[in-house]
Write a structure and sequence with these properties.
Length: 186
């Protein structure tokens, strides 16, 4: 792993079969959250009455162009992104804001239990990985998650996942400014 510094820009150069690919990323300074608490989901599943999520409170900086991605870890598992894990501040710029997040899930699992997807339960320890990202990283993950959510739909429009790597390469060279918050679910 490479550990970078906040507010620094990093360049990636790949030489492969005579072709050069380049990308740049800047690690933004993350806006700290005011608090993270246990919350009831907007709709409690009938078959999962103890389901809980996390609620975050924060003050968005008064400059446009702040982008975040979040991950959660439940009871020592790996960190997984939420199903919709990236956000920008177009609508909330400069305001005090709160929202409920679903917990991240391993998207490679084939045995999803949709009644427990994104939920924690009382006694679980949940760690939130709150990441500031640059616009190129936001654009990649936003288009990737949208494309992932439309797989198999005959009514969806084709989408091109955006990349910040040159020469039409698909991928992301992304820097993350990170803060961690841990809460025991009540």
């Amino acid at each position: 792993w490479m550990k970078g510094e906040v507010d620094k820009t990093y360049k990636l150069t790949i030489n492969h079969n005579g072709q050069v690919y380049e990308a740049y990323t800047k690690i933004p300074n993350p806006t700290p959250l005011d608090s993270v608490i246990t919350a009831d989901p907007p709709i409690i599943p009938e078959t999962n009455p103890t389901a809980k999520q996390i609620k975050v409170f924060f003050k968005d900086p008064d400059t446009l162009g702040n982008y975040v991605r979040y991950y959660t870890r439940r009871n020592g598992e790996l960190y997984y992104p939420g199903l919709n894990s990236v956000y920008n501040d177009e609508l909330i710029n400069g305001s005090q804001f709160n929202t409920v997040f679903s917990l991240g899930e391993n998207r490679n699992r084939s045995d999803f239990n949709y009644d427990s997807l994104g939920y924690a339960h009382p006694g679980d320890t949940v760690t939130l990985k709150w990441c500031a990202i640059d616009k190129a990283t936001y654009d990649f993950w936003s288009t990737f998650e949208f494309a992932l959510g439309t797989i198999g739909s005959p009514f969806s429009s084709p989408i091109r996942v955006r990349s910040n790597v040159s020469n039409n390469a698909l991928g992301i060279w992304g820097g993350y400014g990170v803060k961690y918050y841990t809460v025991v679910i009540k």
